[in-house]
Amino acid sequence: GDSVTQMEGPVTLSEEAFLTINCTYTATGYPSLFWYVQYPGEGLQLLLKATKADDKGSNKGFEATYRKETTSFHLEKGSVQVSDSAVYFCALSLTGTASKLTFGTGTRLQVTL
Amino acid sequence: GAVVSQHPSWVICKSGTSVKIECRSLDFQATTMFWYRQFPKQSLMLMATSNEGSKATYEQGVEKDKFLINHASLTLSTLTVTSAHPEDSSFYICSARRTSGYNEQFFGPGTRLTVL
Question: For chain B, which has fewer Cβ within 10 Å, the N-terminal or C-terminal residue?
Fold first, then answer.
């Protein structure tokens, strides 16, 4: 079946450090890939998405590139801020965001001053 | 816009009792709502998909008689955990898909259920 594997956290970084959260997937078809973020006490929010191979999703300084050859969708940010502290979920869907989402386990990011 | 609320945010109940969790789309109409369950350090697992005015579609392995879902209006879906047991303790999260406009799921903040 379809699955998403992402690196375990927590990830602790100093402000302005470079962030990478790894995500790999297994899917029977051609999935769309997503990163969701959950801030404390809030619901999951769509951070970025990519719908086909080589697409790059970007938002709020975060980027992720859909790599079909390595079945990966790693999340990166060049300079993290304390306000980026949250839990990040990688997910896939075979038919767009509004259909069944398969999530990774989530990675907690803690950014310190 | 596109806010989804859940109530309660946390609940503690005794084994054998039933618990109802509400999921509301506050500023949009949602034809479809999804219910997820999350165990500590594990993924969100889709439990069921509910469509307004029709029966919910449950994922394999989810007991429909245990987890009753009602989607009676375009802004409200409820999940009732019947005869709850300690193994039902978990974090329950709903999401709602907008009826019109951009096709995206919007998530509620979740409900922490603890069954004693």
Answer: N
Q: Give the model's pLDDT for residue B101.
A: 60
Q: Which amino acid is at B94?
A: C
Query: Looking at CA atoms only, how far is residue B53 from chain A in angstroms?
Result: 18
User: Rounded to an integer, what distance in angstroms lies between the CA atom of residue A70 and that of residue A56?
Assistant: 15
Secondary structure (DSSP) of chain B: ---EEEE-SEEEE-TT--EEEEEEESSS-EEEEEEEEE-TTS-EEEEEEEETTS--EEPTT--TTTEEEEEEETTEEEEEE-S--GGG-EEEEEEEEESSSS--EEE---EEEEE-
Nearest to B103 among A42, A97, A105 (CB): A97
